[in-house]
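User: When convenient, might I ask for sequence and structure tokens for a protein?

AI:
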Amino acid sequence: MRIGHGYDVHRLTEGRRMILGGVEIPYEKGLLGHSDADVLTHAVMDSLLGAAALGDIGRHFPDSDPLYLGADSLELLRQVCHLLKKKNYHIENIDATILAQRPKLMPYLAQMRENLAKACEISLDCINIKATTEEGLGFTGALEGIAAHAVCLIA
């Protein structure tokens, strides 16, 4: 069994959509990034790649490559899961936390779980997603960005 940890952060900005776990969240700002800037999915990908000792998403999907401009992060997650399968790894579970002062994410967590489970081709009960504020502290509390952590277990 192998454990992986992933972390990602993106700045909030006007003129972008907010995508988290493949769900478009209605909000006046979105996340700035080369792809769709889905911090949750990026953290999950990094945790899986880390557990398998396969580097990180920057190595596999560099932001210098125009191929990934505006990329759908769930599609990139499918590619990561394919890499794991080629190495004969199976995802046992994923636990993730989104750090965001706003918007409130509770209504969207179930769909995020479903999207990630489908992309990873694993059972819904193998994925947990939580959201928390940081009580107004730090860059997430100041509404400057959103971050996510993910841990996974693969075998």
The first strand starts at residue 2 and ends at 13. Residues 2-154 form a domain with the 60s Ribosomal Protein L30; Chain: A; fold (CATH 3.30.1330.50). The chain has one domain: 2-154.
